[in-house]
Input
Amino acid sequence: MTSALTLPSGGLLASSRPETTTGYQPLPFELDHLLALRVPGLIETRRHIHSHPELSGEEFETAALVHRELSLAGLKPRLLPKGNGVICDIDGRPDGPVIALRADIDALPLDDPKDVPYRSTVEGVCHACGHDVHTSVMLGVGMLLAQLADIGQLDGRVRLIFQPAEEILPCGSLEVIEAGGLEDVAQIFALHCDPNLPVGKVGLRVGPITAAADNVTVRLTGPGGHTARPHLTVDLVDALGRLVTEVPTLISRRVPANSGLLLVFGHASAGTRYNVIPSEACAAGTLRVMDRDTWDEAPKIVAQVVRDVLAPTGATVDLEYLRGRPPVTNDARAIGVLTAATAAALGPDGIAETPQSMGGEDFSWYLEHVPGALARLGVGRSGPNVDLHRASFDVDERAIEAGVRLMVQTALRALAAAR
Output
């Protein structure tokens, strides 16, 4: 049976290329010519992945596609133990350092309403965060660096990580680390699509660039009863209202204002009838915080405030606090590498300062073990931009070439700096 993600014949070779950015330095050893041949095929790959998205933890066909394409480039990729991710070393000078580059490959549980030829063919699943772009960029990087390795011009080893399950807990980065993905790694780098930046711009920041992100679920139970006699039971709808309105405000008063703590409930439910007080209610949301020290204290603070707010209601409370990921904290030296790489790949005007985001990213777990940095790749389209995690999110596909250039330059400069 042909895989749903099998590419059309001809692999990733194509005969034309889109308009490129200006002001960049040529890639070494005529890699510009090879990239010009590859870009249309990489765009085709991105569209194919976009049409056939897979949810977190289920990225088996996407991983198989990555494995095939890297094998065709003469590399020796290996699947993660579950088969839904790939690690691939590009071996250059044997006594050189090891630099890792990571791309996440999972999609989100959203319908795709876009009127485009590459619209998702999987109901309720959509690449609304740009991971299809990340995957395609990293495939292009692997193919170019494989050429350098073949001619003896790769000054060490580059490890490509195609990671599953970035969008869920527990995080896929922990699976990669457990599988030895960071063994011998000196530095690690990643890109993330940013629709607020145009193509040709790369957002860089020393220190924290994302927030910590945890999941909070509160389940309430009581006897239930008649809405005519709430005094004889526990009014869970009232308790739920107090939970979702009072707790977020009160916990923000327990921490420094500049910690950026934010609890937002995205789900709340109780009852099925207008005249029946329910016996069960539930609210679930995310807690985000910019400060690492506050993140360490957050579970205790949330538990105490929830108890204090709900104690007068008489509801029985079950709090599930699921630790997610710390902030991504970019290493200064790694940002130095990315800054030089951006100037070389896209010209000095490609460098853009970027603020710390309240979004979470499990790339942070890699940085708990080795230094590295996450950059924001400009993918903004003409007209109003659509934010990440909206089903209508799409990208300017010229960003794929920009991303390949940036990550090739990053790998080469990181190898040189780590010697």
